[in-house]
Amino acid sequence: MDLQNTQEASKTLRDSLTPKQIVAELDKYIIGQAEAKRSVAIALRNRARRQMLEEDIRDEVAPKNIIMIGSTGVGKTEIARRLARLVDAPFIKVEASKYTEVGYVGRDVESMIRDLTELAVNMVKAEQTETVKERALEQVEERLLDYIYPPPSSLKKDREDESSEEEDLAESDGGEEEPQEVQELTAGLIEIANEPEESETVRKQREERYLRTREKFRQQLRDGKLEDKPVEISVKNRTAPLIEIFSPGGIEEMDINFKDVFGGLMPKQTKKRRLTVSEARQILMQEEAEKLIDMDGVVGDAVSRVEDSGLVFLDEIDKIAGRESKAGPDVSREGVQRDILPIIEGCTVATKYGMVRTDHILFIAAGAFHMSKPSDLIPELQGRFPIRVELKSLGEGDFKRILTEPKNALVKQYIAMMQTEELTITISDDAVDAISSLAYRVNEAVEDIGARRLHTIMEKLFEDISFEAPDLEDKDIVVDAQYVNGQLSDIVKNEDLSKYVL
């Protein structure tokens, strides 16, 4: 490994989160499941460690894929969601159940890599857009000034163009009333445009007067005084030709970017749009940024990120666990496993951005495994998930912590929601205890859906308050254990709890 690559790798390891930091961030939103958090944190840190290895051994270090086992609602998907916000790497969450064996209706398994690559390209493109933002804003400002107050026709040689541009300038208001200062400046431009053709010296003087006036408009634009002014701009027509393609393998098998192909064959089309200055600025900003961005570099960087630090969360892996001996809807389950296997083992997938290798993409699978078990997966697939973590079911104490501790705790959400109606909600500790106890009892009696039960209970609890909130005179409401029992007494008394809960 040369010196430059060594320095870059060291910077990658230094800038990445440590395992303890990753766990601490996950603890802010997810209660319990320490073992799963530790496994995920170590796997992510290993991605950065691998970048520091010598090139010959770096390719030999395979990612240690993880399979998380646990009932629904215990935090598997939430861990994936929070990871997506933590890691500065391409991340995608997919459901294994939407992929089917080739020949059956469903998506091609390779589409997960195509989607991941597309996401990485957009990520790098957004980063590059930030780097060229200042230069793009300068170009946008010039274009806006040209649209708002174009150069006077007297500065052009053709007298026919002179009269037409004078009319455009006079009608640029769109019939709407403008500030007095804007009207005076516009009148000055029209006066310049109406002057007869004179000597070169006089023409230069008029140009100078126009430029001075343009600078005044520039200042008004920067001060935000023209944000609501309507302008008519020319934008590229991004609508692609509508083409139907019939292929046995589906459009994903035909790895061609038809938009680019037919967009190159047909002439570039523009259309006029009448927008406010603030709206036009956003559209023009996209166009100018695209001109400044090196898309070849963006694609190369994106593909490298996918290959070296891509992360795929494969949810509902238990839904495809089954053997060929089963009939009916299960016929393609093992086929899906065999189709997914090469992706996880490491292969090369064709995308519209080029070939992408999956050898070092980290896969985290998750499933409830109620009706099946991990051993029902084909042995080859089991071997590709060496790390297995079993998430624990949530107890009454966990529910109490989930209601109050996380940054996005349900109690905090409902209090904030009611504040928009100028209501002050106070939820006592005994109310939290009652809600937690009820959620746990319902999970035990009906179906254990984990923390999702709290959403059902809380929505039922706040149903009356939410409905009456705009008309309530008493803006201070205390929710205590007595209120909880009163609102949810039907659930407590009725044995058929499924009538009231999911």
How would you characterize the overall build of this protein?
- The protein has 502 residues and is α/β, with parallel strands linked by helices.
- It folds into three domains: 213 residues, Rossmann fold (3-Layer(aba) Sandwich), CATH 3.40.50.300; 160 residues, no CATH class; 104 residues, Helicase, Ruva Protein, domain 3.
- The strands form four sheets. A five-stranded parallel beta sheet has the order 2-5-8-1-9, with helices on both faces. It has a two-stranded antiparallel ribbon with strand order 3-4. Strands 6-7 form a two-stranded antiparallel ribbon.
- β6 and β7 form a beta hairpin.
- It is flat and about 95 Å long.
- The two termini are 57 Å apart.
- About 7% of the residues have low confidence.
Strand residues, percent: 5-15%
- The coarse silhouette is flat
Total count of strands:
11
Please write the CATH class name of the largest domain.
Alpha Beta
The largest β sheet comes out as: 5 strands, parallel
Instruction: Compute the number of helices.
Output: 22
| CATH homologous superfamily heading of the largest domain | P-loop containing nucleotide triphosphate hydrolases
Mean pLDDT: 77
- Named CATH architecture of the largest domain: 3-Layer(aba) Sandwich
Structural class: alpha/beta
Please list the strands of the largest sheet in the order they lie side by side. 2-5-8-1-9
